[in-house]
Amino acid sequence: MEQICKAVEHTDLLQGFIATHSCSGDTGGGLSAYIFQCLLTDYDKFSIVHLPIYPSPQQPNTVVEPYNTVLHLDQAVDAVKLSKMMDNETIGIDELVHNVFGASGRTVKCDLNRGKLMACVLSFRGPMAPRLVNRALSRIKATPHMEFADWCPTGVKANLVTQPPILMVHYSHLAPTDCSATMLANTTAIRSVWATVGVKFDMMFSRRCFLHWFLKDGLEESEMKEARETLASIEQDYREIGMSGDRNLNFFTSTYRTLQVKRRQ
After folding, report:
1. Which pLDDT score is estimated for 89?
2. Are residues 224 and 205 in contact, defined by beta-carbon separation less than 8 angstroms?
3. Most CB atoms closer than 10 Å: which of 38, 86, 217, 240?
4. CA dist., res. 101 & res. 142, Å (int)
5. Alpha carbons 15 and 211: distance in angstroms, whole number
6. pLDDT of residue 191
7. C-beta separation of 64 from 207 below 8 A
8. Proportion of the chain in helix, strand, coil states, percent, rounded to 5
9. For residue 124, what are the contacts with CB-CB under 8 A and spacing of at least 6?
10. Which residues of the chain register pLDDT less than 70?
11. InterPro entries per the record (predicted)?
């Protein structure tokens, strides 16, 4: 925190904080949550944006990553204003737009077809005609599997910068490109990520697996339960938003019923 305060003192116009970290490790999950709480106390008028790396569904790094992730979320949910989720497993204009909506263009393993889009913004860079961008977006919105929340019928906002993408690192292994597209979306489908973490947490916690690692460091069992309730509350909120007319609700209902956790009031 001392180094952060020094960096803030040298800024002319502080707008907020951006953090990239892992959720599944002790340092990435625990230390980052502590820093967020300190920032919330000392710089409560400024926003915190973080890019958390969530556990991969198929490639776990540590046996206690469900614990670390849930505990981190419990502390970060009140401090962070925007979260762009990623995991370690997934990292013509029509094709470009199709790719950002497709599985290969997502930073977290999540099927957009199993939820509703509540907000979506696309940022294009490169020599593109606005009419071609609008046409590509219209085709995406017309596909049967693309569903938007009732209060957001337009669904997608787009901005276009005609300057091509700039390769900041000259000796990077990334090849230069003439055009690019970046999508930020808030979708009810993201609850599947939390459901996966929650189910793994419940399986371990019910058997008290590795719980002593946390208890010996001063954490109380009630804090673990409270963190789990926070995760269940967030998941339930997104589930309720997507409930109306959601064709794939049964998929998540069966998953959520396994949690058996009382929602925090």
Report:
1. 63
2. yes
3. 86
4. 13
5. 39
6. 92
7. no
8. 45, 15, 40
9. 96, 133, 158, 159, 160, 161, 179, 180, 181
10. 59-60, 88-92, 104-105, 153, 167-175, 244-265
11. Tub_FtsZ_C, Tubulin, Tubulin/FtsZ_2-layer-sand-dom, Tubulin/FtsZ_GTPase_sf, Tubulin_C
How would DSSP label each residue in 99-149?
Answer: HHHSGGG-SS---GGGS-EEEEEEEEESS--HHHHHHHHHHHHHSTT--B-
Q: Give the pLDDT of residue 248.
A: 42
Rg (CA), the chain: 20
Tokens of 30: 């625990």
Rounded CA gap, 53 and 20, in Å?
Answer: 8
Q: What angle do CA 211, 218, 196 make, to 5 degrees?
A: 40
Task: Kindly report, residue by residue over 19-60, the tens digit of the pLDDT.
Answer: 999 898 888 899 999 999 999 999 999 999 999 988 877 766
How far apart CA 92 and CA 88 sit, in angstroms, is 28
Give all domains of the chain, ordered by start, each with its CATH number: 1-89 (3.40.50.1440), 93-190 (3.30.1330.20)
- C-alpha 6/C-alpha 57 separation (Å) is 38
